[in-house]
Amino acid sequence: MAAAAAGKPDGWPHTAVATFPQPRIDGSAYDPPMSERVPSDSLPGGGSAVEPATPGAPAPAAAAEPEPPLASEPPVAPGPLPALYLGHGAPTLLDDPVWPAELAAWARALPRPSAILIVSAHWQSAPMTLGATTRVPLVYDFYGFPEEYYRLTYDAPGAPDLAAKVKGLMPAGEPVAERPERGLDHGAWVPLKIMYPDADIPVLQVSMPDLQPEHLFAVGRRLAPLRDEGVLIVGSGFMTHGLPFIHDYFMGRPGAPEWSVEFDRWAAETLERGDLDALFDFRNRAPGMPYAHPTVEHFAPLFVTLGAAARPDDAPTFTIDGYWYGLAKRSFEVR
Q1: Quick one: which of 147, 148, 218, 251 has the most CB atoms within 10 Å?
Q2: What is the rounded CA–CA span in Å between residue 253 and residue 272?
Q3: CA 8, CA 31: separation in Å to the nearest integer?
Q4: CB 141 within 8 A of CB 186
């Protein structure tokens, strides 16, 4: 599956410059240097007390059998929660006819988390930084969208206990900062609003300290013990994110460009065989680069997810695949 060379086949871009208007994600709430600014997301979550018996009193009626749980209720966790990597899309994902149902079904199949720790493509800040641990406004880190998307809320409780545990899990060489005023960005609240719409699970967003795969993987290894405590660890990005090159698909062309298909296929096959070295070196080994990720922040959260797995080289469970405006939305869980 080598990437196409000169004389690109249909579906490969012939320029590296977007020439079409599109809603874009603003970098104002995102902290990397200008060379790593996030590109724009575009249009296209026991016993009961018993009174002691009184002598001579009639025997109490037998307790009614408890009703079986509704099918929509999440199962009781049989062990550590998985770690997830998912695509989050722009806020317009909320109105998509297919993708929200896939995310909601995935959440229903998971045990209910005690808390959620999420790493988003839209927050890179060194050193690793903890977001708000109390309820604060969301970060509307996008512009050019209809006003309705700026009125959306996701009022999940903060997770101060989880924040303290995260700090305690990091070694001396991995300093941890805090930004108590920073709310969830759209890479966090858009998928969580679908998967956990009641917003009743504590959420903590953590920044990526850099975009180096091995470092992010090491961070995930440090966070892994939280899964034993019922914490759902989520890396939120996009399996391909070549926004400058999807004009035709944004305008309604079906399917996906060749660079998106090739990168998605390579990632799936490489994950299935557990080839971590190849994944770490995706910039050089993956077909479809650099078109699939002109900047790499949407692929980077995958390495936190893999690091949080008990056996990172085991094949993941793919839960969502397909394409959205030509971009691969492949998502998976690892245990």
Answers
A1: 218
A2: 30
A3: 35
A4: yes
- Secondary structure of residue 249 in the 3-state scheme: helix
How far from each other are the two terminal CA atoms of the chain, in whole angstroms?
Answer: 29
Angle at 156 between CA 153 and CA 161, to 5 degrees: 150
Other C-beta atoms within 10 Å of 248: how many?
A: 16
What value does the CA radius of gyration of the chain take, rounded to a whole number of Å?
Answer: 22
The DSSP H or E segment spanning 306 is helix 301-307
Residues 6+ apart with CB under 8 A from 82: 110, 227, 232, 317, 333, 334, 335
Token output for 144: 């050019």
- What are the tens digits of pLDDT across the range 262-272? 999 999 999 99
Write out pLDDT tens, residues 238-258.
999 999 999 999 999 999 999
- Dist. CA 268–CA 331, nearest whole Å: 10
- Domains recognised in the chain with CATH numbers: 76-334 (3.40.830.10)
Q: What is the reported pTM? A: 0.80
Q: Which two tokens stand for residue 231?
A: 């914490």
Q: What's the CA gap between 77 and 207, in Å, rounded?
A: 27
Q: Which two tokens stand for residue 31?
A: 């902290």
- Which amino acid would we find at residue 331? S
By residue count, the chain amounts to 335
**Rounded-to-integer distance, Cα 203 and Cα 158, Å:** 6
